[in-house]
Amino acid sequence: MQQFEIPKTFKAAQLAEYGKELQIAEIKTPELKEGEVLIKVEAAPVNPSDLSLNDGHYPSGKVLPAVPGIEGSGVVVQIGPNVENVKVGTKVAFTAYSNYGSYGQYSLTTSQQIIPLDDDISFEAGASSIVNPITVLLMLIETQELGAKAIVHTAASSALGRMLVKYFQDSGIDVINVVRRQEQVELLQKEGAKYVLNQTSETFQKDLNALAHKLNATVFFDCIGGNITGEILSQLPNKSTALLYGLLSGQPVSDISAISLIFQGKTIKGFWLTTLIHKYNPFVDENAKKNLNALLKTTLKTEYAKQYPLDKINEGIQFYKKNQTSGKILVRPHQ
């Protein structure tokens, strides 16, 4: 078995107070418990969900001060007792919901939260293997199980949105992409999206109603929340389902019509990767793992706008907040 020298301490970006900048600190390397894995982190992206967790809008399960960072890629350098599904030295993608997230030189996770990566997948590509790609994979499964032929998706120019429209259209599912700016309309159209609507248009609701009924779009994935959730659901065909997987607006879901729920058979429910149990989940299904690795090189490949060393992470986060359509940023803890 390959052996690595484990440092007593390592550098990490710590969250000391929700809504505040991260602080670079030297922290003690944790001792592994049963089922745990220590990963030397090579790359970690900043996702919208990371921003929401850092601001305290999402439950994190962390005890502050803690190292944030939901996902990343790296190499397994130490395993705890009774870990049998991965070996030391394996290149992996991982999620980390412990106090030792991915924004550090090392991260602590469990053996059930890792996915081995093919040798020809770089750490950069592998860093964004989970939050967006697996969500998109399971969104398609959910759509197929609900029997939908078309869907509506908000914040469609995001990294996830651009993955989704390619993957869904390749799978024969039409996507009505909803964005807020004309340049986002043009971006998606340039990348091959067939249907794009600007929610700031005066005719948005009328156009959405007509297109949703024409395509029979009965599934709606929403990551914004607030009043847009109810506004869009009200324009969809009877028996449509809204799946809320984010809350970028920071506002409670509103404008849900009782008529829509009672008389039109519409439903709304949550869709969250960490609580979603499905047999086709790459964390547990070997065929799904192989499929994910293949798609990471093509349809579900992530592009990054910029990369930052760990001590410049706050600068990177500020850039990302202002330029999310440009692509994610990537943190490189060992640079």
Automatic annotation (TrEMBL):
UniProt-recorded Gene Ontology molecular function terms: NADPH binding; oxidoreductase activity, acting on NAD(P)H
Q: Which ranges carry the Enoyl reductase (ER) domain?
A: 19-331
Alphabetical keyword list? NADP, Oxidoreductase
Q: Which Pfam families match?
A: ADH_N, ADH_zinc_N
Bilayer-crossing regions: none
Return the protein name.
Enoyl reductase (ER) domain-containing protein
What organism does the record attribute this protein to? Paramecium tetraurelia
Taxonomy of the source species: Eukaryota, Sar, Alveolata, Ciliophora, Intramacronucleata
